[in-house]
Write a structure and sequence with these properties.
single chain; 269 residues; Rossmann fold; 5-stranded mixed barrel; 25% strand; globular; binds hypoxanthine
């Protein structure tokens, strides 16, 4: 399969012509976390549907637009709405925005997601800094012809969840009094939530949280040398812990912790 390199550069050029200066950091907002884009000042908004070749978010609560602007002194590019494999996109399409960010010269990628807790010590509302992942399902976005200008055929994943950024997050959490956890994210393809047996399996294998996103983006960004920080917002206990998964919950306290952590990270990176 020929990778869509020309399309990547075309989309990047379209964005560059609008925003003029490219931020060093991009932030992908997970389900229910799109509101964070409201904190951006001097906004420029680019709907995905106007960007050549860009996939369009179809998931609920994923606005489907790039928001570029400032948080304090720092400029940042926000994906308000991500692209998931369960929407029917190919892995190449899922990571197309990440490749465009790379082509633009973005260096740091902050990924956020809503997740179910697999770890029995976790509670709804916990924030979990991700330090690793487990993925069994769906092809890799790196499958097929390698884009040599982005990274090597076989890339190291030892520090994909960049230790320096995790340390930074822990320091910010401590000084801001934000309760924080650190753990392993397991990727499941969705769109059904997992079965109780699958969750027991994931727990046995060392997973702390589970979700349907983030990992394709991590694979793609790590391949091309971007520095990655990823955090899960625990919205529910995973299947089998309670009788059912009713809804994803976002308490005001947890949102406030999330806001302060992400703002702190953007200020310091
Ligand atoms: N499983 C998978 N994805 C999720 C969950 C879950 O329990 N909660 C939020 N996203």
């Amino acid at each position: 399969m020929i990778k869509n390199t020309e399309q990547i550069y075309k989309a990047a050029e379209y964005i560059k012509n609008i925003i003029k200066t490219v931020p060093e950091t991009a932030l992908v907002l997970g389900t229910g976390l799109g509101y964070f884009a409201d904190f951006i000042e001097n906004k420029q908004i680019i709907p995905y549907k106007e960007i050549p070749h860009f996939p369009v978010s179809t998931a609920p609560d994923h606005a489907g637009q790039l928001v570029v602007g400032n948080i304090g002194e720092k400029s940042v590019m926000i994906m308000q709405g991500r692209i998931h494999y369960y929407e029917g996109y190919s892995m190449d399409e899922v990571v197309f925005p990440i490749r465009v960010m790379k082509a633009l010269g973005i260096k740091n990628l902050f990924l956020t997601n809503a997740a179910g807790s697999v770890n029995l010590d976790y509670r709804v509302g916990d924030l979990v800094i991700l330090n690793d992942h487990i993925k069994f399902f769906n092809d890799s976005p790196l499958r097929g012809e390698n884009i040599d200008s982005f990274g090597p055929r076989f890339n190291d994943m030892s520090d994909a969840y960049t230790k320096k950024l995790r340390e930074m997050a822990k320091t910010i959490a401590k000084s801001e009094n934000i309760p924080i956890r650190e753990g392993v994210y397991s990727y499941m393809p969705g769109p059904s939530f997992e079965t109780p047996a699958e969750i027991r399996m994931l727990r046995t294998l060392g997973a702390d949280v589970v979700g349907m996103s983030t990992v394709p983006e991590v694979l793609c960004a790590a391949h091309s040398g971007m520095k990655i920080f990823a955090v899960s917002f625990v919205t529910n206990l995973a299947a089998g812990i309670l009788d059912e998964i009713k809804e994803l919950e976002y308490t005001d306290d947890s949102k406030d912790n999330f806001n302060r952590l992400i703002k702190g990270m953007i200020a310091q990176v």
